[in-house]
Specification:
This protein is an alpha/beta fold. It is 31% helix and 25% strand. It has two domains: 10-32 and 305-440, Lyase, Ornithine Decarboxylase, Chain A, domain 1 (Beta Barrel); 40-302, Alanine racemase (TIM Barrel, Alpha-Beta Barrel). The strands form three sheets. Strands 4, 14, 15, 16, 17, 18, 19, 20 and 21 form a nine-stranded mixed β-sheet that branches. Strand 1 (10-11) and strand 2 form a beta hairpin.
């Protein structure tokens, strides 16, 4: 199997793909399709690689790094437990994600709460359980959090989310640090500095540092370097103003993964050593002591570890304007279990997972069953000309943002999430049932 598949994926002599020692045909028979399949060993190994590579890179400078798993990529209570066991912390972006992380045994002190519009209830719950950091995103939140903390007679540990103006990432929807968007407080306008002063002066807030996240699916280290330098200049300016050097700096995540055979990735090793050197160079320019650093990989840990398994229903052949032909392969899922293709124009690969084929590969498009012409899973892929109803089709590198963005469009049922290891499958999230669907509908 090529590099886009998880580490334990293999194809047997009969053409069937196994992951974690489990035959995908057997998983489909037991759990149905569509099905999200997570390679536990692969996901744990990727978490450990980020932990170890960043520790080694920053240790050269006698600095410490905390790795926070960005749970918005994929979360279950078992995955939260995996991250705890691999000595990662976790960041959450809602009250629901917070509860799942806690349910998985992640200590509250190792949880960071994000979000541009946290509710009073979410802030209160975070303070009650004692989360380790709350990343404040607005002046309104600073005032509200200070008031809630005063009411509870606690001091809230906060970081200020900074919009550095560095534009990075693929699609505009996942570039999160340019000026004209909803996240953070602007460095250029001075809002970030004012927010730091407000947190510093608040009676029930403890200012621990600054945070930024510049985007997702980033390949270039130049963007991280520029962002780090701007953050450290802000830190130095604040220290000069108030005599307090912020102890922590979070540089976010967004490390690119490989989605297709010819795609590119930013490895944990390259990211770690490149960012460590970038911080060192920036500190040499702006001055100051080394802060405690933190990063937030999500996609880079979960994405390559997962695949989505479908069953083929209908195959059509369409003549194209350029004289060619395209094979349309319709599967039993679609935009309800993977929104990224229609939302971001994401590219994926696919393979028949249940048998061998000697048929000639042909240009194909894998589409879903929904009433939308944009319901595409894989836009362009070479699949055997004899792919047929009943075949199993696997789409790799879908561990991130598949299940967490899934929906019930057309009243379809959301797939289960199972992990596999040593031939054993474990259910993380069960499949929706018709009873679930009808229970949400209030009968007249």
């Amino acid at each position: 199997m090529d590099a886009v598949w998880s580490a334990t994926a293999t194809r047997g002599d009969d053409g069937a793909i196994t992951v974690g020692g489990a035959d995908l045909r057997e998983l489909a028979g037991e759990f149905g399709t569509p099905l999200y399949v997570i390679d536990e060993a692969d996901m744990r190994a990727r978490a450990a690689e980020f932990r170890d590579q960043f520790a080694a890179a920053f240790a050269r400078h006698h600095a410490h790094v905390d790795v926070y798993y960005a749970s918005k990529a994929l979360l279950s209570s078992r995955i939260a437990r995996w991250m705890r066991e691999e000595d990662l912390s976790i960041d959450v972006a809602s009250g629901g994600e917070l509860e799942i992380a806690l349910r998985g045994g992640m200590p509250a002190a190792r949880i960071g709460l994000h979000g541009n519009n946290k509710s009073d209830a979410e802030l209160r719950r975070a303070l009650e359980v004692g989360v380790g950091r709350i990343v404040v995103d607005s002046f309104t939140e600073i005032e509200v959090l200070d008031a809630i903390a005063r009411e509870l007679d606690v001091v809230a540990p906060v970081m200020v989310r900074v919009t550095t103006g560095v534009h990075a990432g693929g699609h505009e929807y996942i570039a999160t640090s340019h000026e004209d968007q909803k996240f953070g407080l602007s460095l250029a306008s001075g809002a970030a500095f004012e927010a730091l002063l407000a947190c510093h002066d608040a009676t029930h807030l403890r200012l621990t540092g600054i945070h930024t996240h510049i985007g997702s699916q980033i390949l270039s280290l130049d963007a991280f370097q520029e962002s780090a330098e701007r953050m450290l200049r802000l830190r130095a300016a604040f220290a000069a103003e108030v005599g307090f050097e912020l102890p922590e700096v979070d540089l976010g995540g967004g490390y690119a993964i490989r989605y297709t055979e010819h795609g590119e990735e930013l490895t944990a090793h390259d990211a770690a050593f490149g960012m460590a050197d970038a911080v060192a160079e920036s500190l040499a320019k702006v001055g100051g002591n080394w802060p405690r650093l933190s990063i937030e990989p999500g996609r880079a840990i979960a994405g390559p570890a997962g695949l989505t398994l479908y069953r083929v229903g209908v195959v059509k052949h369409v003549d194209l304007d350029d004289g060619g032909r395209r094979q349309y392969v319709a599967v039993d899922g679609g935009m309800s279990d993977n929104m990224r293709t229609i939302t971001y124009g994401a590219e994926y690969s696919a393979a028949v997972a249940s048998r061998l084929s000697d048929a000639e590969p042909v240009l194909s498009r894998v589409v879903g069953k929904h009433c939308e012409s944009g319901d595409v899973v894989v836009r362009d892929v070479q699949l055997p000309a004899d792919v047929a109803r009943g075949d199993l089709l696997a789409v790799p590198a879908t561990g991130a943002y598949g299940r967490v963005m899934s929906n019930n469009y057309n009243a379809v049922l959301r797939p289960a999430v199972v992990s596999v290891r040593d031939g054993e499958a474990t259910v993380h999230i069960r499949r929706d049932t018709l009873d679930d669907l009808l229970s949400w509908d209030v009968a007249p």
